[in-house]
Design brief:
Layout (H helix, E strand, L loop, with lengths): L3 E4 L11 E5 L13 H6 L3 E5 L16 H14 L5 E6 L1 H12 L4 E7 L11 H13 L2 H12 L6 H13 L2 H10 L16 E6 L7 H10 L4 E5 L9
Parallel strand pairs: 2-3, 2-4, 4-5, 5-6, 6-7
Antiparallel strand pairs: 1-3
Helix pairs in contact: 2-3, 5-6
Length: 241
């Protein structure tokens, strides 16, 4: 089963009886959400934060690994911990997993927040970026890659501590899982199915996001009926920026 962290409302705080599931991005793990879970528990929510397969303290041994298999992992995980319904919050890869889950198991998701994500990772203008990233996984030292991604994702001078934390999380990932998952992005494409999502959805986009630019979130907003779009002057990881 996936490793996870669980946080509950402080003693004496009124509980909502609602569960929030937080899904991290590629190369990170559950600690990515450390700035969010206190606010959710203060609001009365039970917060579940898993490490996705091959990341953090969740093992990866063999077999296919992609957005679909990770959504299946989450389904089995929720069954194992007896969560029958939850709000989903996913960033980047986590958002893609949330969308796949909403298509496969819509009755389990109450509401959904999609942050800095896309229905297709190799979308307009991003093929070269991801090609370089894929090739670097085979050709360059792992720590060098982690530092390069962290500088690209968190470019501000005041984000040195964030870059250092990202590299630590990146280095904790299973190398084979990361490589196979990243390569699977070439086939990830739910653009023709997004309009089937009926889950109440809030979409968050960053105006400075260079990894999955704002037009990708605008596409989701256009296709997911009734969705709302919020934009911030942030980069790819709006939860930290």
């Amino acid at each position: 089963m996936l490793h996870y962290q669980e946080f509950n409302p402080p003693e004496g705080r009124k509980r909502t009886e609602k569960t929030i599931l937080l899904l991290h991005g590629l190369g990170a793990h559950s600690d990515m959400w450390q700035f969010q879970w206190p606010a959710f528990t203060e609001a009365g929510y039970r917060v579940i934060v898993p490490d996705l397969r091959g990341f953090g303290r969740s093992a990866y041994r063999k077999g296919p690994i992609n957005v679909k298999t990770m959504a299946d992992d989450i389904y089995e995980f929720l069954k194992a911990i007896n969560v029958q319904r939850a709000h989903f919050v996913g960033l980047s890869l986590g958002g893609a997993i949330a969308m796949q889950f909403a298509l496969d198991h819509p009755v389990i998701i109450d509401k959904m927040v999609l942050s800095n994500t896309s229905a297709k990772f190799l979308g307009k203008g991003k093929s070269l970026y991801f090609l370089i990233r894929f090739l670097s996984l085979r050709l360059l030292p792992r720590k060098f890659i982690g530092k390069a991604i962290s500088r690209y994702t968190f470019p501000r001078k005041d984000q040195e501590d964030v870059r250092r934390e990202f590299v630590c999380q990146f280095m904790s990932a299973n190398r084979r899982a990361y490589r196979r998952l990243a390569m699977s992005f070439a086939k990830y494409d739910i653009t023709s199915r997004v309009q089937q999502i009926r889950t109440p959805t809030l979409i968050i986009g960053g105006m400075q996001d260079r990894t999955l630019p704002l037009h990708m979130q605008e596409f989701l907003h256009d296709k997911i009926k009734g969705s709302k779009l919020l934009t911030f002057d942030s980069g790819h990881v709006a939860s930290i920026d």
